[in-house]
Design a protein that fits this description.
Order of helices and strands: HHHHHHHEEHH
Helix content: 55-70%
Oligomer: single chain
Structural class: mainly alpha
Radius of gyration: 28 Å
Strand order of the largest sheet: 1-2
Strand content: under 5%
Mean pLDDT: 88
Largest sheet: 2 strands, antiparallel
Number of helices: 9
Length: 262
């Protein structure tokens, strides 16, 4: 009897996502290190600051422009490749900065803006980088918990499917009454394990993962995102349902043979 399982596919998807999130978190860390070393412009009364728009040229604009360009280049070399990895890459650099950080930061860093690289602007960039890094760390924790879930599911599914495959090698006509009864009881135990696995999975879906900074990831939304391209919405629960159905069919066949022999 064939049982459709999506667990191996889910584990492959999980491994790829863990690598991607790890690389992005490291990119934020590298970007933060580069920005930390960048000096800021002295405060000026006419400095537009983080909310600047185009205006008259300011004293010291050349050095400010160079530093904002340095920030853009650092972002392009570290964070942007990971941010646009799942797109066609046509998004502009400033659009990516706006997506990862904020509109005011993107405006302040734009080549057409006369904002200096002030302490305020640097502080805003550092703060947003820290937020994004902690979000990535929280996602890594969630992915680690999902790995435990998939390992648990894979172990249970492998144990039951291996038993079914071995049992299918022997015709029920060649199995004695006591052996049939034992097989019926084993199938009942396997169905209990399927129910326990489904219960653990449902409990996980109702839960959230919280990071050190208070960032929270809802597991239902996380699973929907992680497996959005799958043929089923919930690969673990779908596999468990398929396996339980297979056990039910086997148990029914065994019971029919037991009844005929009484």
């Amino acid at each position: 009897m064939t049982v459709t399982t999506h667990i191996d596919h889910a584990r492959s998807r999980l491994r790829a996502e863990r690598k991607a999130v790890k690389r992005k978190r490291e990119a934020f860390e590298t970007f933060a290190d580069r920005i930390a070393e960048l000096p800021t412009e002295p405060a000026q009364s006419a400095t537009p600051g983080i909310t600047a728009t185009a205006g008259p040229h300011l004293h010291g604009e050349s050095s400010a422009t160079d530093r904002c360009r340095t920030v853009r280049r650092a972002f392009a070399a570290t964070i942007r490749p990971h941010s646009v990895a799942d797109t066609d890459g046509s998004e502009s650099l400033l659009a990516t900065i706006r997506t990862e950080f904020t509109d005011p930061i993107a405006v302040a860093l734009a080549p057409t803006t006369e904002a200096s690289f002030s302490a305020e602007l640097k502080g805003a960039i550092v703060a947003e980088t820290r937020v994004r890094r902690t979000e990535a760390e929280t996602m890594e924790r969630t992915l680690a918990r999902e790995r435990t879930q998939l390992d648990d599911a894979a172990s249970t599914v492998e144990r039951i499917t291996s038993w079914i495959a071995e049992a299918d090698d022997t015709s029920l006509l060649d199995v004695g009454f006591d052996a049939l009864r034992a097989r019926h009881e084993t199938l009942a135990t396997h169905r209990d394990r399927c129910q326990e696995l489904a219960d653990r999975r449902q409990a996980f879906l109702r839960d959230t993962t919280t990071g050190d900074s208070g960032a929270r990831i809802d597991h239902r939304k996380f699973v929907a995102y992680l497996y959005e391209d799958f043929p089923v919405d919930h690969p673990v629960l779908s596999t468990v349902a398929s396996l339980d159905s297979a056990c039910t069919d086997c148990q029914r066949s065994v019971r029919n043979h037991l009844v005929r022999r009484v």
